[in-house]
Structure prediction request, 770 residues.
Amino acid sequence: MKANPAGVLTGAHFLDGDQACCEGALAAGANFAAGYPITPSTEVVERFAARIPTVGGLFIQMEDELASSIAILGAAWAGKKVFTVTSGPGFSLMMEHIGLAAMTETPCVFVDVQRGGPSTGLPTLPGQADMMQARWGSHGDYETIALCPNSPQECFDLMIDAFNLAEQYRLPVLFMMDECVGHMTEKVVIPPADGIEIFPRRFTSLPPSEYKPFKPGTDGVPEMVKAGDGYRFHITGLTHDEQGYPAMNWREQEKLVRRLVEKVRKNTDQIVRYEERDIEDAEVVVVAYGITSRVALRAIQMARAEGIRVGLLRPIVVWPFPEKHIRELSEKVKAFVVVEMNYGQMVYEVERCAAGKARTELVDHGGGTVHEPEDVLKAIREVAR
Amino acid sequence: MPEPPVSLARSRKHRGVVYINWDRCKGCGFCVEFCPPKVLALADSYNAHGYHPPHLTNEQGCTGCDLCGLYCPDFAIYGVRVPVEISEAEVKAHEG
Amino acid sequence: MSTLPMVEPAINPVEPFLRTDRMPHIWCPGCGIGTTVNCFARALVESKLNLDKVAIVSGIGCTGRVAGYMRLDSFHTTHGRAIPFATGLKLANPELSVVVYSGDGDLIAIGGNHFIHAARRNVDLKVICINNFTYGMTGGQVAPTTPIGATATTTPYGCFERPFNLPYLAESSGAVYVARWTSFHVRHITRSMVEAFNKKGFSFIEIITPCPTLYLRRNKLGDSLDTMRYYKQKSVIKNGANTKEVEIALGGEIICGKFVDIERPTLGQSMSMQLSKSLGARYAAPGGR
Prediction:
């Protein structure tokens, strides 16, 4: 279905990533957000707080991230389209409820505008060191989907995709920005509402006597419901059966949790997204995401000018990881150069998928600023030799 | 909908009836303690879990106040008031 | 001779509210939680609420299991976070009557921050706090309500921390309805619940209940029946009492009653009043769906 025009700020704007992220949520139809201030993400909810009362919806600043991350789940079960926004320290606090959202299959979006870490770290400066936390942060087995924009325009566009994925797969979707993308100002074009495709929440049409909140359809995803419609359903974070009743034994665990992970794993091909540049003849592939991909592009330009056949693979959906594509590339290329603003996180995925068929080099960075293109160029030269 | 189980206490002047779910009872004794006319006691026999559920000792005394039902933590007992019709002869005897 | 009337088979008043397919429940013999659930069911009937619009949210713990047994839209959330979940639910659909039914540890320890903020904001929630002075589910640890001197597994030599006085905490945080009863006071509990259901704003009912397996046993306080007798004997009803003065000491007097019943705008009301005032015609109210 098409987007509701009420939330769509059609036109060409000059916005930073945080602001564009907020507009993306509004365009997607988000009508409830709860948040807590944390640099460098606060502007997202500040803008939402200012915009939503004239669009139609609600924002509330909760007393902490624990409250924010579960208030949105309560609102989701009352039928709202929800998201929350935070950075590293808040992301850590929200982990329990990302797990709850995964376990109860609650559609929602969690935005993490990454900053330097660990701990309080560098509140006003970029980092990309929450990437593995996005995959494994909450306890137990579950899969989420994580997207990584590299421009304010993508902050807008991909937020809509994030909400659509959340509704399609009934799970929490993580939006992994970084402080650089969040605070850089660029042109953002917002199309008219009828140019924006929205995946509607799949509310059940079954009567209450037949509906089961956790009975999957053919794609492994159950239909949704909301409180107040007479379904008298039960939602719990305990391992549960299709009815939603606690069923704490290994058989139900296997049945439920396997389905939760397979929801993503079996649909990986449809979910995975990446951008490629100059890959066709590449001997070396630079793998980079978020703001780092833009530095990598500069380095690739410089390397090409020196005659090195190098291209860029930019995962846009970082989780699930584009395993199949890395495996394919590893048959053809000499090496991967993974550039990330951390001391090594996604590089392990690349290395794992390359399985020794291609060399994997890491160009790391503690965060606080972006890489120097020369450092990436050096690594490209090194592996191309 | 569950069946009303076991003993229906009936007698001439009773005003109440208790229903006891024999298998749910865990023998806590609240109903016995707080029954205002004191007409409940734990039975000698016991249920499958080994607990002694209550029974009415004086069928005529139950008023159907349902305090037993309010107290029971296991939803194993409840009382119901029963309207009792009084005959003309009884009314006359009362007024006379 | 009186004619004996035909007695129609009657249903336990609590039964329509139970997920009978999940009975029997997990609570111990003599546990006070079930007693309060009877009161809850009768209060729901008496208040004539549309049951399709009643949602119940629980946290983790023995009392946290209440949501799972109730045939309502029910949510068993994470430890301490029932109140913020309920806040999201209520803000998103103000037509819902949202009840939070949880234990003292869940609501006041890990949930303490959320409790005071929800009371401060006057979120329209009916919070039923079953206070058994312990963490029952996990084996009887000390709780922020455990009286000084009481034994718990994590204070094996006696609790040395001053406990919270819950009605005082609730009142000073801003609750508009504050009552305390023990599970002996079944009719009062029911009445308080009816009043809370009909009231707009953060309504708090503390119900002191026995935990026979852990708290009573470890403190050699007898069994549940002994404790119910103690409640009957040692409780004093003082409606309108000063909540500062209703602290509970081990074996001491328990002051019960309705302490606070005031009016002030709820979070939802103040939010829309403020936004309407500031935005005038531009304000687009959230809308139920």
The first helix of chain A runs from residue 17 to 28.
